[in-house]
Design brief:
By secondary structure, this protein is mainly beta. It has a single domain, classed as Porin (Beta Barrel). It has one helix and ten strands, in the order H-E-E-E-E-E-E-E-E-E-E. An eight-stranded antiparallel barrel has the order 1-3-4-5-6-8-9-10. Strand 4 and strand 5 form a beta hairpin. The two termini are 35 Å apart. 19% of the residues are buried. About 5% of the residues have low confidence.
């Protein structure tokens, strides 16, 4: 009886592993920071990393990623002149996917961005912050298209709902970004 139970457990485990697809991904990030008393240029960044996808059934699936993201933006303010901010993040999104057609899907989920390094340059200082515990949660939605079972194209919009963290005397931020990425499944 134990041998039969062990055999069934192993077979179900192999079947679950066969439904997990994994691969690599690269994309571009367009950030925007609407600010009350300062002006941010929209920034351009990129992300690189890995992804995994588990198909629950023909309609729903789970998608997660581990990404290294980089972007920069410029700040113009009457008090602070021409600051440039460079940021490196580890980004971990977790998405639920629902199929619109066989290859076209709608994605909805959450993403956690962990600040790894931030460097601010300007006329009066050149600062580098490392190891700050800075967690940035975001709500993510968008579309993905999987073609030929190997290529994945994604267009996502992420919005940071936790805005009180950014409030100060000079300005307050609300943060969103648009990401376009291309992935390749290895299995």
């Amino acid at each position: 009886m134990r041998k039969i139970f062990l055999l069934l457990t192993l077979l179900l485990g192999f079947q679950a592993m066969a439904q997990i697809d994994y691969g690599v991904k690269a994309g571009v990030i367009f950030n925007n920071f609407p600010v009350s008393e300062a002006v941010f240029d929209e920034s351009f960044g990129y992300e690189l990393g890995g992804m995994a996808e588990y198909k629950l059934n023909r309609t729903f699936g789970l998608h997660t990623e581990f990404l290294l993201a980089y972007f920069q933006y410029d700040l113009y303010n009457s008090n602070i002149k021409n600051l440039r901010d460079f940021r490196n993040y580890i980004s971990i999104p977790f998405l639920i996917q629902t199929s619109i057609t066989k290859k076209f899907r709608f994605d909805l989920g959450i993403r956690g961005d962990f600040l790894v390094r931030e460097k601010i340059t300007g006329p009066y200082f050149d600062e580098v912050w490392k190891g700050n515990v800075f967690f940035n949660p975001a709500i993510v939605s968008g579309f993905s298209f999987r073609s030929y079972k190997d290529l994945l194209f994604q267009l996502h919009l992420a919005f940071d709902p936790y805005l009180d963290r950014f409030k100060s005397d000079d300005f307050s931020l609300s943060h969103y970004n648009v990401t376009f990425s291309v992935g390749y499944f290895l299995n």
